[in-house]
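Input (structure):
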């Protein structure tokens, strides 16, 4: 089947499905970037028990694992970053952002049965050898009423008050086998989002970017979309954290706000500066 025939077939299928396809340039080629959620080398699944997690070698059961991806670029053989034009599907993806959802609502997991692990779009015809993307919602869309927002930004479980914006990462886990003590906890959350977004009503958007944008840029100079996938490893993200305790006078787990001791190692492994400490790069996402 020729490239033009494939594009025509894709258009016919999308139209019949009630999805309005993105208008691709005449020389565009489709691209799919596959993501995989893991706990170490094991698939991250609802209802599955994991062990040896974090510094306490704790037990873990998944409750939520979702994140927003934006600013997707492929790197061509000349080293140039080429934007991927996302294909809206009226559920997981708009022209600017994709929601990755790895929980199906079974067991102790939140959400519903629908899941998504793919970013779909088009790029100009070419030879691509690398990948760059942001874990974020673009600032222009990050501070709005989610009940009025288009998909996939209408997922209220992935929001904070408008002034702060969306959770770029929403991970919740149940933990076990920690040591008893005044700060012991049976749950731990990792909610990444922008912070220090100025004074004003929680239901009003900031007029300037937040002081801590917290938007990790992930880059792989060697990535072939036709054979590689992006692995998000929860065990690696919390490898230097005791997920069975909670820092005194703070929310459960890491909520991205300055001063939360539960965030120190996690923000470093996300590749983000935190409380004046820089990071030498992310340590939880890999290519396979």
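Output (sequence):
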């Amino acid at each position: 089947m020729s490239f033009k025939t494939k594009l025509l077939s894709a258009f016919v299928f999308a139209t019949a499905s009630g999805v309005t396809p993105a208008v691709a340039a005449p020389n565009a080629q489709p691209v799919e970037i596959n993501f995989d959620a893991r706990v170490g080398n094991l698939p991250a699944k609802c209802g599955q028990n994991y062990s040896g997690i974090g510094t306490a070698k704790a037990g873990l059961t998944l409750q939520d694992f979702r994140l927003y991806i934006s600013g997707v670029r492929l790197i061509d053989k000349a080293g140039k970053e080429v934007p991927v034009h996302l294909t809206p599907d009226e559920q997981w993806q708009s022209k600017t952002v994709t929601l990755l959802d790895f929980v199906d609502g079974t067991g102790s997991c939140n959400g519903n049965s629908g899941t998504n692990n793919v970013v779909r779009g088009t790029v100009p015809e070419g030879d691509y050898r690398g990948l760059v993307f942001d874990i974020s919602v673009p600032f222009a869309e990050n501070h709005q009423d989610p009940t009025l927002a288009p998909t996939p930004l209408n997922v209220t479980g992935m929001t904070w008050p408008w002034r702060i914006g969306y959770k770029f990462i929403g991970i919740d886990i149940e933990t076990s086998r920690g040591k008893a003590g005044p700060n012991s906890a049976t749950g731990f959350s990792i909610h990444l989002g922008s912070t220090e977004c100025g004074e004003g009503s929680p239901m009003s958007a900031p007029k300037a970017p937040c002081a801590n944008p917290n938007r990790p840029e992930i880059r792989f100079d060697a990535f072939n979309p036709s054979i590689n996938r992006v692995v998000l490893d929860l065990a690696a993200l919390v490898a230097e954290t005791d997920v069975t305790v909670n820092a005194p006078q703070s929310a459960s787990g890491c909520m991205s706000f300055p001063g939360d001791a539960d965030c120190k190692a996690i923000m470093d492994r996300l590749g983000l500066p935190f409380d004046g400490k820089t990071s030498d790069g992310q340590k939880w996402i890999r290519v396979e």
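Notes: The chain is about 10% helix and 30% strand. The helical segments are 3-16, 139-142, 234-237, 264-270.
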